[in-house]
Amino acid sequence: MYQTLTDRRQYYRDDTWIVWHASNGQSNYVAFFNVSEHELELPEELWSELVQPEEKVKDLWRQQEITLHNNKIASHGALLIRF
What we know:
Elements: E1 6-13, E2 17-23, E3 28-34, E4 40-41, H1 44-47, E5 57-59, E6 64-66, E7 72-73, E8 78-82
Antiparallel strand pairs: 1-2, 2-3, 3-8, 4-7, 5-6, 5-8
């Protein structure tokens, strides 16, 4: 997957979250990293400019369709999606 991606870039960063975005011409990929010491709900402001609120995206680690609304990420965990 990495070799076919273009426009790889850090989209957002603060003391709690790091967000990376990339695309390959057919799909977009976003990785959300919770760098805090606590499990946190993924804030809508981190993904709302990229994905519609009820849009289904593919969780690439779990291999299932999800929505990002009300999604929690473990401390030092990550979520990788494709849409």
